[in-house]
Amino acid sequence: MKLLPPRRLHLHLSAIAALLILAAGAAHGESGVSEQIEPAEIAPGETAQLTIATLGSTQTPITPPVIPGLEFVAVGQSSQMESINGRTTSKSSVIYQVIPQRVGIFTIPGGTPPVVLRVRPGGASAPPSSPGAFSTLPAAGSAMVASATHLTQDGTAFVRLRLPKHQLYVGESMLVDIQVGLRDGLVATLNGLPSFAGDFFTLNNLSTKPEEAQEIIGGQPFTVLTWHSALSAVKPGTTSLTIDTPLTVRMQTMRPAAANRFRDPALNEVFNDPFFQNFFGGGTTEKEITLTSPPATISVMALPTQNRPEGFTGAVGHFKVSSELSAASTTVGDPLTLRLHVSGAGNFDRVRSVMLGSADAWKAYPPTATFTAADSTGYHGEKVFEQAITAKVSGTQTLPGLTFSYFDPDSGRYATAQTPPVSVAVMPGATSSATANVQVPNAGEGKAPAGPVVSPALRPDHADTGNSVASLVPQYFQPPFLAIPSTLAFAFAAAWLWLRRREQGAHDDSAARQRAASQATANWLAHMETAAAAGNAQVFFSSARSALQQTLAAQWHVAPQSIGLEDIDARLGPDGQDVHQLFARADEVTYSGGNVDTADLEHWKQVVLRRFNERPAP
User: Most CB atoms closer than 10 Å: which of 211, 275, 466, 562?
Assistant: First the structure.
């Protein structure tokens, strides 16, 4: 059979794929791709929003075009499906943030007709910085502006930070997006969450399940993980912020040109492609690295001291307040609950209130606070303060309104919100009523009252409890209590018998587990013998490792699957070098698919058997 040249084979496959797509569109109804960009003209430092939508019953993955001078960052996606008169139509949309790298006119293909983006000379218009005003945000797309994407030297990954602005006040929080891009097939694991060093900012906790999206960068597919969080400024100054992320990168071993049996230089890149090597078992090596995002310069300004309210406690953001009382009436001395609701957006860690401080007619206790977040970042939400208060005097009392002062970072000014006062009907307490009803003789009469004066608030010295006994014999000498010692002796004997049976059952279970472990070990050794005879390296090393895990697990009283290289080094030390080497060899054969000759298999077989012959008796 004669093989087609690679280029002609690629053309044949492309033609077949195009015919299949056209046939699917004709069979299932309307299909197509549309694009929209807003605005169509921007300057360096600004961003545009590109929306790519596909319409049709058969959806294909949406990927951004590769255009030199433009960077595309995925910021959202949606899909919908509808059925009309038996015809099902589906639509998928992906929104990208377009970041220009240079001035020019760019044609973005894919839609009908293609869209055009003009990048004019000059920077984004912004008023000069002042204590009360910040530079304006880009008008287009999302308010988040992403830093440039800088790949690692080997092109495996990147970290970038998306910020809405680069100036803020002390105590102010702003939403941020941290994105980590991992090239498909080249990144093995993410070894930790992104973090930053320094004492200028604090970062809210990041979720262990970030959002995932696909991007094409330099013609290569990347999986982009996005964390949404809130960054809070701690102290004034200008600093450079970077985000670090630990990764384990899987480095592909380049195949020599001799592996290309077709002698075609164009196929060398194909043979060294990560997907091709993963599929056919190419060699790999893993390396731990730490990615660092491009530095972002952020200026933090101190809060102004001019016109600062007396009750300001440090809150920075946009808030509104309301209050409520647990009841509209009360009694002197009975507690009421006063609540203050502070809702909005900002740094809720700095939202504090003393509630009702000092009032003549009221006694106030220290308040408590609870926060309920409205989003995953904790930037939006509500903080509720609760305070117990009691009225000191009866009558219609007025509860003063509560004030809350905060700093508005957008206007650069302080603001004070106040709740309206509340009228409360306070009834006299029980003690004051009893005292008011006591009859006191008139001192002007000069004689004692005809009978004794009895106050309703006083009680007799010896109250009648209504309890009585029929016998003066102590209860522990009465017949019902004489049975207690016998009952205790019976309970002790029963407990002793139960513990004996439980101990015997545990011994039987332990023996059964040992027999099962011995049988499993024997089975794995049999599999190892069969694989060695057949020359199957992967099955041999897998069986040998499982047999060793079974016998070590029985000695160490752990699960066999949990035993790894760290446990072997820690427990066996230098005596376990042969086991360490066998486990490492098993991993290498499993993941790289390397060939092992018969003599090598026989050597490792003798190592395993020698280890079992030398193991201590159970």
Answer: 211
